[in-house]
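Internal tracking record. Fields below are filled automatically when a chain is submitted to the structure queue. Please do not edit lines marked as system-generated. If the sequence contains nonstandard residues, flag them in the REMARKS field before resubmitting.
Queue: standard
Priority: normal
Entity type: single polypeptide chain
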Amino acid sequence: MSHKKGIETRLAHEGEDRLAHQGAVVPPLYQNSLFVFRDWDDIDAAFADRTARPIYTRLTNPTTLLAEQKIAALAGDGYACRLTASGMGAVSAAVMNSVSQGDHIVAVKNIYGPTNNFINRYLAGKMGISVTFVPGDDPAQFAAAITDRTRLIMLESPSSAVFGLQDIPAVVAIAKKHGIRTMIDNTWATPLWQRCLDMGVDIEVHSCSKYLGGHSDIVGGAIVARPEVIHDIIVNESELLGATIAPQTSWLLIRSLRTLPMRLRSHAESARNVAEFLETHPAVKRVYWPGLESHPQYALARRQLKGFTGLMGFTLATTDLTRIKAFVNALEIFQIGVSWGGHESLVYAPAISYLRDLPPERFSDLGISLGDIRISVGLETVGDLLADLGQALEKAV
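SYSTEM-GENERATED OUTPUT FOLLOWS
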């Protein structure tokens, strides 16, 4: 068949040979730690390319290979994927593969909190890595931060908490001019809505616990890049650091990927209704969702993103902590939780974390405020979500 298959078809069938498994429509789960061989020459041949043929599940596993093949297809033609035990497993392996002792990183300011801690605290103390954080809304900020030791530029678009975008092609052009590797956390959009590698980014990372998994029942991470980059990460960081995804998790991820396009379309449709509702509510000061025309980077969002997802932020019109807590506690369908991207709707306030370490007057330094709220719009009936938000917002007026 010469016809180029659509992504829904590829996610359903990519890499699967059902007749090789007695016609099973769902692939088998290889829940084993090692693989045996016919003879000396057979295992010797396997060691010639430890990433292609299963030897030990810390390196590779047939179930995981199938999941990786599907995610690589999702990212585009000519790419490979490495799955890890968590999103931070993917981030740390990709970063460690990109820098050496004494190197310098340029990163967007509102990058995911644990990623920030990893590069700014852990690597600084262990390897003397230095980091310069930039707002990221102007490509010139990245160019100005580059030093002769800069080896990596880290992006996250949209970024955590404030949902700010970076002009990916422009930043990539700056990086290539200086011979610097680029890496992006594309968890929010997924490769379905944002084709970062096709825009020239070198490495893309994901938390599979979010939309790629989509059911709030797995923890995993993914690294996607050119095959030679993934091979180098596998035989170095993955094998030696050991952040290996479990076969059962890979099997569940295969299940999830089959429905990803349909789920994302539903998340996006409901999120638009929610964002527009919040934008006109008197208890809400501002909404942070790149799909709204009021977003300051809406034009850039339309250029870079093929669609939008269900994670958004908004700022309540009050700074009264009692009213802010009353709003969160009044929600019935939106459950209080730290993650997002699953079938259920969730709510979280950054102040819950930051108030443990900082006074509210320091929040502005981080680009947040006491009244900031983050919600993940799930797959429930959208009318029920609007009603739930409406009744809870009455407590914040």
